[in-house]
Specification:
heterodimer, A: alpha+beta, Rossmann fold, OB fold (Dihydrolipoamide Acetyltransferase, E2P), 2 domains, six-stranded mixed sheet, five-stranded antiparallel sheet, 10 helices, 19 strands, B: mainly alpha, MetI-like fold, 14 helices, 68% helix, extended, binds adenosine-5'-diphosphate, binds magnesium ion
C-alpha cells in the first residue's frame, strides 16, 4: 500500500535531435488506496508517465515518491508495482496458465497456492477455458484479459493498468469494469488506470487526471471535471455529446452576444470577472445536457429552429440553429417536433461556461 | 511514341518492338537454346559423373583397370569393403568427435557470446565493433585459416608454443606436437572453432534481437531475476534458432575437407581422416574408383536422410511459429 506523489516530472525522448517532450512538468498526488484514472487522447504521454512510475523509462527531471520516499533510482523490482501493458507483453512460449503463474513463481509461491490463485483470477476474467493455450492462439481481447490478470494476481504496492480494456467489446468491457471495481474495493490498493475512453475513466475512478499534449490539464473528481472544467480542452473532452462552443462578445448588461439575436445571460460573478479583466471577446461553452425544452430546467431561454432530431432510444439529440450558429441539445425522446419548428430552449445562468479566447482557461 | 495499333493483336502494348511495332515474338527454338545450354552443362558436370559413379560403385575399377578398360562387375563387395574397413570406422568415430568438439562447441560458444554481447554490452558502438571483430574470421577462406593455424601450431617456431612457454605453462625445452598424431584432430578442430563460432553467434544474436522487448520489461516488473529470465524465457524462445544454427554447422561438417587437407592432409598416418576426406583420398589420390564411389554413395545416402529429417524439423518449427 502506498501513496504516490509526482513532482515536476519531465520526459524528453532523444534529447537534442528529434526531441520529443512527452511529459511536461507533471504534478500529481495520489492517496493511498485511491483509484485514479489517467485520461487523455492517444499520444499525450500517458504511457510515458506510467513507464517512469514503474521504472522502465529514465526520468529526465523531477521526482516520484512512494509514501514520501523518492524512488527515482529504484529498480522496477524494488518499486514493487504491478503493470498490465498496453501491448499485452505475454510470454509467447508459456501457456496462459504459466503466464498468469509467472509472477507468483518469481515470488516463490507454492504450486498449490499458484493453481488456486490462477483459478480464481481466470474465473473472474472469464478465461478458464483457455488456460492451456498459448498466447498466439488467442484473440486480442482474450490476450488483453490475460495481461490484466497477470497484473492483478500480484500483491504490489501500486497497480498500473495501461489501456487494459481497449480491445474488449462493450458488453464484456462493462463486466470487466465491474469486476475491476470490485477488486479495488476488496484490495483497497492504489490503482492507476490509463485510458483514452472517458466512460471507463469516469465509471471506475475516485479521481481523474486529464492529460493533453504532455501536460496535466486537470485532476479532479467527476463533478469537478463536469461542472468546473479548468479549460476548454477538458470541457470539450469530458462529456458526451461534446460541449457546444461559440465565439461570443460581452455586452454591458451581463450578457454574451453570439450572433444576431442569440445571446446568453451570465451570472453576476462571471460578468464582474469579465469586466474586471476588460474582456470583450470570449469563447462560450454550454453542455447539451444543460439545454432543455422544459421551462422548469431554467428561467433563461434562447430561440432556435430545429435542424435534426436524432432519436437514440432513451434520449434525443436535437441539432438547433439560431441564425448562423448551430448547437446540440440533449433531451428526453422527442417525437412531436419536426424539422423547421421554432423552439424555446431553456438554460441556467450557472451552467454557462466562459473561456479566455487565448489561454482557453475557464473564467 | 509510336502508338500505332496492330489490329487483332492478343498481346499487350508493351509486348511490341518500340521501333517496328511488331509483336516481340521469337523463334520457338530460342527458349530451347536458352534452357538447353545450362542443362547440357549440368549433364556434363553433375548428372553424367553421378551415373558414372553409380555404375563404378559396383565394378572393381582402379587405376589399372580404368586404363586398360577391363574392370568387371563385383556386386556389393565395394560397399562391403567400405563398411567393414577399419579406416572407415575410425573416421566415423573421428567425425563424431569433430561434431561434438567442433560443431557443438561452436554453437555453444556462439550462443554464449551472442547473449553476453546482447545483454551485457550497453554501448551500441562497442557492441557493433565487437560483433564485426568476432565475425571477421568467418570472412577468410577456410584454406587460408588452415595455413594460418598450421603456422601458429608449429611445434618449434609456432606462436602458440612460444606463448605457452612465455606464460610458464611449458618448460623452455618442452614442445607440444600440435599437429602430431595425438593432437592433430583437436588442433584442426580448434582452427575450425576459431573460424566458425561466429556463424552460430550471428544467428543466435539476430534471434535474440528479434525477441519482443516488451516481455523482458514485463519480466522486470514481475521482479524475475536475470538467470530465471534466461532459463525460462530467452533460451526456450531461442531453442529453435539454436537448433537451426546447429543444423547448419552439422551439414557443413560432412564436407569438412579444406582445413584437413591444408593442415595435415589426413595425417600423420590416417589420424585426421574424416569420411569425405577418405572418399577424396581414395578416388583422387589412390584412384580406387570403385571403392571411392561406394564411399560417396554411402555418405550421400546418410546425408540425404539426415538432411531430410532436419528439413522436416525446420518445417515444424516454422509451422509452430506460424510462419508457414
Ligand atoms: N521510446 C520513444 N522514443 C521517442 N518518442 C517516444 C517514445 N515513446 C513514446 N514517444 C513519443 O512520446 C509521445 C507520448 O507517447 P505515449 O506516452 O506512448 O502516449 P500515450 O500512451 O498517451 O498514447 C508520443 O508523441 C510518442 O511518439
Ligand atoms: Mg499509451
Amino acid at each position: 500500500m502506498s501513496s504516490l506523489t509526482i513532482k515536476n516530472l519531465n520526459k524528453i525522448y532523444n534529447p537534442g535531435k528529434n526531441e520529443v517532450h512527452a511529459v511536461k512538468d507533471f504534478n500529481l498526488e495520489i492517496e493511498d488506496g485511491e483509484f485514479v484514472a489517467l485520461l487523455g487522447p492517444s499520444g499525450c504521454g500517458k504511457t510515458s508517465t506510467l513507464r517512469m512510475i514503474v521504472g522502465l523509462e529514465s526520468i529526465t527531471s523531477g521526482s516520484i515518491l512512494f509514501d514520501d520516499v523518492e524512488i527515482n533510482d529504484f529498480s522496477p523490482e524494488q518499486r514493487n508495482v504491478a503493470m498490465a501493458f498496453e501491448s499485452y507483453a505475454l510470454y509467447p512460449n508459456f501457456t496462459i496458465f504459466e503466464n498468469l503463474a509467472f509472477p507468483l513463481e518469481v515470488k516463490k509461491n507454492s504450486s498449490s497456492e499458484i493453481s488456486k490463485k490462477v483459478g480464481e483470477i481466470a474465473e473472474m476474467l472469464q478465461i478458464t477455458n483457455i488456460l492451456e493455450l498459448k498466447p498466439n492462439q488467442l484473440s486480442g481481447g482474450q490476450q488483453q484479459r490475460v495481461s490484466l490478470g497477470r497484473a492483478l494476481i500480484r500483491d504490489p504496492a501500486v497497480f498500473i493498468l495501461d489501456e487494459v480494456m481497449s480491445h474488449l467489446d462493450a458488453h464484456l468491457k462493462f463486466q470487466m469494469l465491474f469486476e475491476l471495481k470490485k477488486i479495488h474495493q476488496t484490495l483497497k490498493k492504489t490503482m492507476i488506470y490509463v485510458t483514452h475512453d472517458q466512460m471507463e475513466a469516469l465509471a471506475l475512478s475516485d479521481r481523474v487526471a486529464v492529460m493533453a499534449n504532455a501536460v496535466l490539464q486537470q485532476f479532479g473528481d467527476r463533478n469537478d471535471l463536469y461542472h468546473r472544467p479548468k479549460n476548454l480542452f477538458v470541457a470539450d473532452f469530458i462529456g458526451e455529446p461534446a460541449t457546444n462552443f461559440m465565439k461570443a462578445q460581452y455586452s454591458q448588461n451581463s450578457t454574451m452576444k453570439i450572433s444576431g439575436d442569440l445571446q446568453f445571460s451570465l451570472t453576476n460573478e462571471i460578468s464582474s470577472e469579465l469586466e474586471r479583466k476588460q474582456m470583450s471577446e470570449a469563447v462560450l461553452g454550454i453542455r447539451p445536457q444543460n439545454l432543455s425544452l422544459d421551462p422548469i430546467e431554467g428561467e433563461d431561454y434562447i430561440q432556435g429552429e430545429l435542424v435534426i432530431n436524432e432519436f437514440l432510444g432513451e434520449r434525443s439529440i436535437l441539432e438547433i440553429k439560431s441564425g448562423e450558429t448551430s448547437y446540440k441539445v440533449l433531451t428526453d425522446p422527442q417525437k412531436n417536433i419536426k424539422k423547421g419548428d421554432s423552439l424555446k430552449i431553456y438554460y441556467k445562468k450557472e451552467n454557462v461556461m466562459i473561456f479566455h479566447p487565448e489561454t482557453e482557461d475557464l473564467i | 511514341m509510336n502508338m500505332q495499333q496492330t489490329p487483332n493483336s492478343d498481346y499487350p502494348e508493351w509486348f511490341k518492338n518500340r521501333k517496328s511495332g511488331n509483336d516481340l515474338i521469337v523463334s520457338p527454338l530460342i527458349p530451347w537454346a536458352m534452357v538447353g545450354l545450362p542443362v547440357l552443362v549440368l549433364i556434363a558436370i553433375v548428372i553424367y559423373p553421378t551415373i558414372w559413379m553409380g555404375y563404378h560403385a559396383f565394378q572393381n575399377t582402379n587405376m589399372m583397370s580404368l586404363f586398360y578398360n577391363n574392370y568387371e562387375y563385383v556386386g556389393w563387395s565395394n560397399f562391403y569393403n567400405v563398411i567393414t574397413s577399419e579406416r572407415m570406422h575410425e573416421s566415423i568415430y573421428r567425425l563424431i568427435q569433430y561434431l561434438i568438439f567442433g560443431a557443438c562447441l561452436e554453437v555453444l560458444l556462439g550462443t554464449i557470446l551472442a547473449l553476453i554481447l546482447y545483454e551485457m554490452i550497453k554501448n551500441e558502438f562497442l557492441k557493433i565493433m565487437l560483433l564485426i571483430l568476432m565475425v571477421m574470421p568467418m570472412m577468410l577462406p577456410p584454406s587460408i585459416v588452415g595455413v594460418l593455424w598450421k603456422f601458429l601450431l608449429q611445434a618449434y617456431n609456432g606462436a602458440i608454443n612460444h606463448l605457452l612457454i612465455n606464460i610458464g605453462i611449458l618448460d623452455s625445452m618442452e614442445r607440444i606436437e600440435w599437429l602430431g598424431a595425438q593432437y592433430a584432430l583437436q588442433s584442426i578442430t580448434i582452427a575450425d572453432v576459431w573460424q566458425w563460432t561466429a556463424l552460430p553467434l550471428l544467428i543466435v544474436y539476430s534471434g535474440r534481437v528479434s525477441l519482443p522487448p516488451a516481455i523482458y520489461e514485463a519480466a522486470k516488473v514481475d521482479g524475475a531475476p536475470a538467470w530465471m529470465v534466461l532459463k525460462r524465457i530467452t533460451l526456450p524462445m531461442l531453442k529453435e534458432i539454436i537448433a537451426i544454427a546447429f543444423i547448419i554447422r552439422f551439414m557443413d561438417a560432412y564436407k569438412f575437407v579444406d582445413k584437413i587437407y591444408v593442415m595435415t592432409s589426413g595425417g600423420p598416418g590416417q589420424s585426421t581422416e574424416l569420411p569425405v576426406f577418405i572418399a577424396f583420398q581414395k578416388g583422387i589420390r589412390e584412384v580406387e574408383v570403385g571403392e571411392a564411389a561406394a564411399y560417396a554413395w554411402l555418405i550421400f545416402v546418410f546425408a540425404a536422410v539426415l538432411t531430410t529429417l532436419f528439413l522436416k524439423y525446420l518445417k515444424n518449427v516454422l509451422k509452430a511459429q506460424a510462419f508457414a
